[in-house]
Structures
1.
Amino acid sequence: LVSRVSRYVSSLESRKREPRGSIMMPALLTSTSRRPRFSATAATHARMLEKEDGRIDWRKSAREIDCHVRGMSPWPGAFTSAGGKLLKVHRVLVGSEEPVAGEAGTVHSSKERIEVECGRGRVALLEVQAEGGKRMSAIDFWRGKGSGITRLGDA
């Protein structure tokens, strides 16, 4: 085994001076993996995204909202309304997926976390951007402009 490894290492040492493609090409050409076949008739088209597609519907589950925020980045961006103004939501974290008793869009804030009730569960807001403002942590936003906000969106 040691001699096989040393022969392999020495063969690589001698090939170092060769162009990089020549080391990998033989392995790629002899590969037994197959390419998946795609059918052009089974393909579908998706419509172009519009700005309104980024609006967060707080009646959806926490997991769906997390996927929505990630899926809408960078364009059109996920957003909601807060105190009658636009609030972009850049990052969230699924807090709980348990059914909630409160109304979707209700904000619960503490010193270390800002959570919003969803249709099922809660999401923690991590990064937001106020209308005309810069991107910041949700905690910093709530300490300043967001301190009086108790509800998000039109849910």
Note: DSSP finds four helices and six strands in the chain.
2.
Amino acid sequence: WKILKPPGLFSYRDKILASKEFKPAIDTDLTKWCDAVLAHVTLAGVKSAPYKATAEALKLKPSEMKKALTVLIEAGQVTVIQNSQSAQGSLLLTEIVDASRATFIALAAKQGSVTLAAFRARAGLARNLAVALLETFDAQKLSRREGDARVLIG
């Protein structure tokens, strides 16, 4: 650190000027946890990464996993999808969820309703993940289940 004039008010570190009292919102450990979780979820891709299995694979304590996920969710990088296979849900890159949502909307707009099979085929997802995403869309009031298909709401 180099203290700039007037003495004690500002510091210069790594080419960044900041108030001397400034403390980063994310410490080094949290940054490492976030990077590890994001890398794990990215590697899983459209297969999704179960919450508990991710924490165990990365050897993160529950509190560490929770902190990392809070940061990643707030940053819009990771989404937790609830499913019947894991009480805590599965982790997906938000961009995959967004692309799946766009696929669902396009199918529904074109066909009027969307079956699980049609959504799976178009989105390229495993059955369990496709079901979990469709249930998520229902919970978000994007869609409604009618028999074996789903329709857009609104």
Note: The beta strands are 2-3, 10-13, 16-19, 49-50, 78-83, 86-93, 114-115, 143-146, 149-152.
